[in-house]
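@channel anyone free to eyeball this complex?
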Amino acid sequence: MVNEPGMLAIDGQIPDQLLVPDNADQVAGILKGASGAHLAVVALGGGTKLELGAPLEHASLVVSLKNLNRVLDYQPANLTVRAEAGLTLAALNQILATEGQYLPLDPPCPARATLGGILAANASGPQRVRYGTARDLLIGIRVALADGQIVRGGGQVVKNVAGYDLPKLFVGSLGTLGIIVEATFKLAPLPKKTGTLLASFRELEHTCRVASRVLTSPLLPLSIEFLNPEASTKFGMGNHPILAIRFGGIDSEVQRQLSDVNRWSREGDSLGVEIMKNDTAFWDRVRDFPAENRVVVKVGVLPSRIGETGQAAEEIARRNGLSCSFCAHAVGILFIALEGEDSRIAKVIGEIGQVAIAMRGHFMIQSAPRALRESTDVFGPRRDDWVYMRKIKHELDPNSILNPGRLEVG
Amino acid sequence: MDKQHLVREFEALLGSRSVLHDPQDLALYEYDGSIERGRPDLVVFPRTTEHVSEIVKIAYREEIPFQPRGAGTGLSGGTVADQGGITIAMSRMKKIEIDAPNLRAIVQPGVVNHDLSIAAAPYGLYFVPDPSSQKACTIGGNVAENAGGPHCLAYGVTTNHVLGLQVVLPNGEIIETGGASLDFPGYDLTGFFVGSEGTLGIVTSIIVRLVPLPEAVRTLLAVFPNVETASNAVSAVIAAGNVPAAMEMMDNTAIQAVEAAKHAGYPLDAGAVLLIDVEGVREGLQERVDQISGICRTNGAYEIRIPQSAEEREKLWSGRKGAFGAMGRLAPSYYVQDGVVPRTQVPALLRKIGEISAKYSVRIANVFHAGDGNLHPLILFDERDETLTERVVQAGNEIIAECIKAGGSITGEHGVGIEKRDLMALMYTPVDLQVMERLKLVFNPNQLLNPCKLLPATKSCIELSTRRRAAMKKPLTTGTPELNRLAGLPIP
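replying in thread with the prediction:
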């Protein structure tokens, strides 16, 4: 284990020490010591989401998982893989690709994002339309708890209902319940071919109508994504709302589905349609959109309310003199990037949040400088279920040493 | 408070037709689909979330154990009143609201699984989890057990289709977790509640994801000389990049039973069959079917049948779904295991099951979700033969131990309940079990809700349930449930 002097700030907090353990037992040992001494511990993966969540209160020890980067068990015929939490998604998928398989998660920055970080942040991307998110693919987990014990939940098999579903509890826990040291995932076969249709429309509502038709049809898209005009401009693709739909599979399936959505787009008054054969670069940009903007709000609403929500956000931003670009997954997740003066951004985030809540949805700040997160409600209003989240937090981390403040459950 | 007072209090809350307390009536609620028994002291039928909350508050106040119950089709004793107390039967809470454009439904827990798919069908949608009991089992029970089914191979089990819950906690408090939109911030309490076997709270409303019906489905019946070749074919199909919608196996013993009971069209001389559903858009489907057929043949299939009509296909599937029931043709009772192994370990495990069958001289039929590695050995027996029953339980435990050794699980979809609570220690370390226990106590601190389930039983669990079971063996004072039914006496 390397023990380096404090060198980097995590969310504005300068840690005393950066520790680089070589294995899970060392991670557990660090936590045991930290628990006894009441030292705040931050787990560090690729550092791609340090501005996600409420402001970090302290950071005495930073535990980098970069040396926990091994694939522990990969059996292609089982379509499962078990790996250490510090392995990056790109490194894992490079190995899986040799067998024509992949972990079908596409959060931003896969070359740096680690498996543990993706789980803790519940990070996902446009491909969730087809494959869901980390909670749907994670089948087993090992976590070092605050008291220095290592707990295992789930297992190696794709179907397992033995005991409580511990893996679920750690997805999206923002490192506040334990340090994930190992994870087992279900995998998917890599599509033999992919193809993407891009259609531009005059109005966002037209885009939504076509997307809704695809979503409720028997077609099996990998991704259905909206870009608002400002996002289209950022992508260098004109200044109209764009609908992007990607299919994967064998050639005949892909062609047939593209031809359906092509027809539906034309019937839906699209301004123009383009079929992209080499679509990887485009989807990489969509994937990275939430990471490439300084202030991003994530909003979750019902699929049918995306258009309304997006338009409301644009209108609120315009009224306050901000620029507002967004990419949205048609299943009901918008990533809204805001640019302009910070004092106005804080106000706009609050108003967009109210729109989401009024639609029985929710919002959270996906990424913003610390000062903005200090002055803004990061997660929106809490329901009664947060009382029980707090109780879980107290049960597993009674001294609140793990990422204190991040989830506001301490 | 004595029982009569309690009955009156519940009758005042729910009406007299919603409370059962006669031993004859209660006897109907002492079992589920497993071999466990435990008679409740009262059965109550709430119609609203508030009813459930009030019932729970009374039980909490009186410190009486209580447990929710759906259709009673569970296979691990999850709803059996192991410690007596109040059984809260959810069968009258069965509203369905469908939001087709958003692919959602809000359902009450007493909704029958198949009824939801029937209600969704006019919109071209369905609810994916399809346990074999789907014509009887309820969504509340599916949530409690994290139910699976043959068609979960490609699209996931119940937890992948539940987005939000309304839950009555053991103190009567009502909370909401998750919701109709995705990725609610905070801990995933919805995910933690699904599969918690009714030990953390009682679910009173469920937001589920619906899925568009596939445009086209092709069913293949691949016939193999033995289970070994059939299971090799399963691994090969998956390894080649195909995840069919369903991939089910039956061995010769199971085929004999199914054919005797259902005349579903399975070849009686087959060593094993694979029933495979391939779904998707029409284009490309034939290519996939050809590829899978080819892999089956390469691995030893000597016949591939593709049903030419919907009826023929339906018959094959009804044979598969009715397979457990068909075991009655071979023996009066069966004891079903639910172990899971990595797909590649299926052939080795089936060999082990053969050896265990010989060792204990018990007959075992295999009907299972081969694509998931989720085995269902059905050990056939006659409850009246006590030495045989003992051997059956031993054989079952040995099969489970082999699944664990192969890196698997003690249960893939039936749940732990009472039946497998002591097997949990085979699979998890003491630390794992302690963490589960501590998390359970966060929600269920007095352990009044569904006590003595899912985690290894304590001494007091065993003592009380043993005493109660002994009392159950005494004959009932008047009539029997069957006689009551024949006499037209009220049975809800």
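from a first look: The longest helix of chain B spans residues 386-405.
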